[in-house]
Design a protein that fits this description.
alpha+beta, 8-stranded antiparallel beta sheet, two-stranded antiparallel ribbon, 11 helices
Length: 405
C-alpha cells in the first residue's frame, strides 16, 4: 500500500509541481496585502489627531467638504467611519467600483484614492487564474480550470504524502520531525521535504479544500450543503442608490438578506419613456442615523452610512467582518429595521467563512503568520521534490551503467 501511494505521490507531483509552486507562492504574497498596502501609503489610512482633542466632524460636514473638493460628476453614496480616532474615513461614490476615497474626519481634507497595488493585482490574477481571468465574474476560463485541477491534485499529493510519512517506529519518528544539516545536501533536502511538508500539511489542506469552492460549482454546492447552506442563484443585489452592491474584502456581500428592503427611499420614476432625476439626498440625515446607530451599539468597529441603510461592524476585537444592516428613514434618520449577522441564513455567511479560512484572516496576525509560512513551504516543496527525484533518477542510471541492481 505504501508503494502504491508513493507512486501516486510521484506521478501527480511531476506534472503539477510547478503549478503548485506558482499557486502557493502567489498565495503567500497575498497574505499580508492589507498590512503592506497600509504601510506603503499610511497617509490614506491614518491621520494626525488635533492637539486640542477636537471631536470629528459630523458626517454631513465631512460629506460637504468632500463634495467641494471632488468634481460634480462624482456622487457621494456612502461614508465609512471607524471607532479608531486615528483612522481616516472612507467615502464611496456611485459607479466607482473597488475604490474608496480617504478623508480626514477632523478637517474633511481629501487624502486620496485607495486601490490595490499593481504587484498584488498581478499576484491575485496569477493565484486565481494563472493570468487568464474570466471576462465576467463567475464565468469559466482555462486558467481558472487549471488552478482548480491543480488544487485537486495538490490535495491528493498532500494526503498520499501523509501516508508515506507515517514512520514504522519511534526512532524513525524522531528522524521524520527534524532536519539534518550535517549529512550533505541530499539528506538536508530530503529532511526538509519530509519534515516541513508534515508541519505544513494541515494548513495547506485547509487552503486547498476551501479554495476549491471558487473553482468548481459542483464542489461549492457540496461544501455549502455540508455546512447547511445552499448556493441557489440570485439576482445581483442593489444598493440603496440603485448600483450593484460591492463585494467586500472578506468575500461576503455587503448585504445580509435580499428580502430586507429599504423603506421610504426616493426612487426615480419614468413617464413616457423619460426618467426624472432622483431627488437630492439630504446628508444631514446621516448625522441622526449615526447617532441612532451609536445609541444601539456603544462599542463598534465601523459604521458605513448609505442612502437609506447603514452597515455596523459591532465587534471591535474580531478580525472578521460580521456586519449588521440597519435600515433608516431617509427623511428622519430613524432606524426602521435591523438585519443582524447572526440571524442571516448559512448560505449568506459561508462564503465569508470559507474566504477567512482560505486566507488565514480568521484569527488576525496570529493566523496569518503560520498561513504565510505554510504557503511558502507549499511553494518550495515541489522544488525539493524535483531535486530528490532528479538525484534518485541519476543514481539509478549510474547503477545500471555500472551493472549494479
Amino acid at each position: 500500500m505504501r508503494k502504491l501511494f508513493s507512486r501516486l505521490h510521484l506521478w501527480l507531483s511531476i506534472p503539477f509541481g510547478l503549478l503548485i509552486c506558482i499557486v502557493c507562492l502567489s498565495g503567500a504574497a497575498l497574505v499580508f496585502e492589507q498590512e503592506i498596502t497600509r504601510a506603503l501609503h499610511p497617509e490614506l489610512h491614518r491621520v494626525q489627531m488635533p492637539e486640542n482633542d477636537a471631536t470629528p466632524l459630523r458626517p454631513s460636514e465631512i460629506a460637504t467638504c468632500i463634495r467641494t473638493q471632488m468634481p460634480d460628476s462624482l456622487r457621494l453614496s456612502s461614508l465609512r467611519l471607524t471607532a479608531d480616532p486615528q483612522a481616516t474615513c472612507m467615502a464611496g461614490f456611485e459607479n466607482v467600483k473597488r475604490q474608496t476615497l480617504a478623508a480626514d474626519p477632523y478637517t474633511g481634507e481629501v487624502k486620496g484614492w485607495t486601490q490595490t497595488l499593481p504587484f498584488f493585482q498581478t499576484m491575485r490574477r496569477l493565484h486565481r487564474w494563472l493570468m487568464d481571468a474570466p471576462q465576467q465574474k463567475g464565468m469559466p476560463s482555462t486558467g481558472k480550470t487549471v488552478v482548480g485541477v491543480t488544487t485537486l491534485a495538490m490535495t491528493a499529493i498532500l494526503l498520499t504524502g501523509l501516508v508515506i510519512w507515517v514512520p514504522r517506529n519511534r526512532r524513525a519518528l524522531r528522524s521524520r520531525l527534524s532536519v539534518s544539516c550535517t549529512k550533505g545536501w541530499r539528506r538536508f533536502w530530503y529532511d526538509s521535504h519530509v519534515s516541513l511538508g508534515f508541519y505544513a500539511t494541515l494548513l495547506l489542506l485547509v487552503m486547498a479544500l476551501t479554495g476549491l469552492t471558487w473553482s468548481f460549482g459542483w464542489y461549492r454546492t457540496a461544501a455549502y450543503a455540508l455546512f447547511g447552506g445552499t448556493t441557489t442563484a440570485t439576482r445581483p443585489q442593489q444598493q440603496t442608490d440603485g448600483t450593484p452592491a460591492p463585494h467586500r474584502a472578506d468575500g461576503k456581500s455587503g448585504h445580509h438578506d435580499a428580502r430586507q428592503q429599504t423603506v421610504g427611499l426616493p426612487r426615480s420614476r419614468s413617464h413616457g419613456g423619460q426618467a426624472t432625476k432622483e431627488a437630492a439626498f439630504d446628508y444631514t440625515v446621516w448625522d441622526r442615523a449615526l447617532a441612532a446607530a451609536q445609541e444601539r451599539y456603544p462599542h463598534y468597529k465601523s459604521i458605513k452610512l448609505g442612502k437609506g441603510s447603514m452597515e455596523v461592524d459591532p465587534d471591535p476585537s474580531s478580525p472578521l467582518r460580521k456586519t449588521d444592516r440597519l435600515t433608516f428613514d431617509p427623511q428622519t434618520g430613524e432606524v426602521t429595521a435591523i438585519a443582524r449577522h447572526e440571524d442571516a441564513p448559512a448560505s449568506q455567511t459561508l462564503k465569508g467563512w470559507f474566504y477567512a479560512f482560505h486566507t488565514g484572516s480568521w484569527g488576525g496576525m496570529w493566523t496569518k503568520i503560520p498561513y504565510f509560512l505554510a504557503a511558502l513551504i507549499g511553494g518550495l516543496l515541489p522544488l525539493s521534490g524535483y531535486y530528490l527525484w532528479y538525484k534518485k533518477t541519476g543514481a539509478r542510471k549510474k547503477n545500471r551503467a555500472a551493472g549494479r541492481p
